[in-house]
Amino acid sequence: MHNRPDFSLWHGRPYHSLHAFCLNMYHEKLYKIAIDAGMTCPNRDGTCGSRGCIFCSMGGSGDFAVRAGGRPVSEQIREGLSLFHGKKTGSRFIAYFQAYTNTYAPVEQLETLYTQALSSSEIAGISIATRPDALPCEVLILLTRLKAAFPDKFIWIELGLQTIHEKTASYIRRGYSLPCFTEAVSALKQRGFPIIVHIILGLPGETDIQMYETIELLNTLPVSGIKLQLLHVLKGTDLAADYETGAFQTLTMEHYTDLVIHCLEQLRPDIVIHRLTGDGPENLLIAPKWSLQKRRVLNHIHHTMHTQNTWQGKHCQIS
Description:
By secondary structure, the protein is α/β, with parallel strands linked by helices. 34% of the residues lie in helices and 15% in strands. It contains ten helices and nine strands. It has a seven-stranded parallel beta sheet. The longest helix is centred in the last third of the chain and has 14 residues. The chain is globular, with a radius of gyration of 19 Å. About 2% of the residues have low confidence.
C-alpha cells in the first residue's frame, strides 16, 4: 500500500492526470488536435481481418478528428487551432494522430506526416495511435531518427490493448496476441518512447476481476500512461448487432465508477491517466447514453474518490 500522495503535485485531483503532468512538465495545459492521416488498418485491409475490431466505427476511432480529405497535416493543424478560437488555452498543442492505425503506411509517407506536425511551432509534440503489430523495425528507426531531429518535441506512442484476455481479444477481433503487445512495449521502451495503453472496461463477458488483471499486468510493464475507456456501442458496428440481440448489457454509471476507482487504486502512481471515460459521438452512440454527460461522469468519479478517501496507487502492490 502506498502512502497518501502530495495532491498538490496532482493539482488537487486524486490521480495523476494528464492535466497535472502537462502543468508539471511543460508549465501549461496542452490540448489535443486530432489528426486524420488517411490511414487504414491491418484489421480492415485483409492483412489480419477485414471488418475491424467489433466496437470500431467506420471512422476508425477517429470520429472527432479533423476530416482529412487528403489535406496536409499542417492544414489540419491550422483548422484544429481555429476550433480553440476564443478558448483560454496554453500556447502549444499536441498533434494526435488518431484515426485508424497511424504507423501503417510506407516509411516515406510517415516521415512526411510526422515531420509536418513536429515542425509546427504551435505543436509541443505528437501522439501516435497505432497497433503493436504495426511497428516494424523500419518504423521504429524512423521514430528514433525523428526524436533526435526534434529534441525539443515529444513523441508518444499509443497502443490499443483493450484487454489481456485472449478469449475477449478473439471476440472483439483484435487480431494480435498478448506477446505481440509486450514485445512492442519492450521495443519502444528500449528506444526511449513513452507508451500510452488503451484499455476498455465493460467488454462483453469480462468479469470485474478480469479487468483488474489487465491493470495488474500493466503495472509490471514500462508503461507511461493509460486511457481507461468505457465500452461504447456505436451504430453500424458488429458490437451493436450483438447488443440489439440482448447478448450483453452496457455498464451503469455506478458500476463504471466503481471499476475506474478500483483500477486507479491498483495502478502505479507514476502512470499518467490520459482518460477516465470516453467520448462517444452523439449521432452514433446507442449505449450507454449516460456517458454523453462527460462532465457529470468525471465529477461523480472525483466526488466518490474524495468521499472514500482514496487515490491512485493506494492499493498498488508494486513500489
